Amino acid sequence: MGLAPVGYMNKITETGKKYIAPEITEATIMKWVFHELSTDPLAADQVRKEANKKGLKCGRSNFWRLVRNPVYCGKIFIPKYKDEEACLVQGQHDPIISEALFYEVQDILDGNKRKERPNTKMISNENLPLRGYLICPKCGQTITGSASKGKYSLYYYYHCSSSCGFRQRADHANDIFLKELKKFVPHPAIVDLSKVIIKQAYQTLFKQKRNVSE
Ligand SMILES: [Zn+2]
Description:
About 40% of the residues lie in helices and about 15% in strands. It is of the alpha+beta class. The chain has 3 domains: about 10-110, Putative Large Serine Recombinase, Chain B, Domain 2 (Hect, E3 ligase catalytic domain fold), CATH 3.90.1750.20; about 115-185, no CATH class; about 185-214. Strand 1 and strand 2 form a beta hairpin.
């Protein structure tokens, strides 16, 4: 058994069996962290900073590992080994949070659940079409945008809504996004071919189903 994860401490029974048990101060902070993340999905790094103030000793990258660790809801991750697939098993230790809360936070961190929708008033500027939709790669906050007055004209920038300092030229970001979007435009031939394939697959499946029920 390695070093106990943050929120737990290594213990040993009278019979010499090693185990981990919640360490009350850190466990309370970790519990708070998960609850915070479940209510405010965009402020992950803010949550970490607050947790640091509360006494949690961990940097940004370690924090991301912690909030992804199922140990907090009582599970243990068993990595893939030879022919055995990776899996989660029930641990022997006490959970700090519920399984439901753990998965809710995972969904939010994965971006499957967005509680905040972009403000339409905010995205109406044609120079900043992505404003409110982008997430800061540095800190996870929403990216906003604004114009900056240059010598001869206005320059548009996307920048982080927190104080992390992330900033990019809007026209460059828009170009990259458009280029990426164009990759999804199918060739006309593929559209027709797809229709044929889907129709055939549907008919085959339908025929099989009918044969089974007959
Ligand atoms: Zn940021």
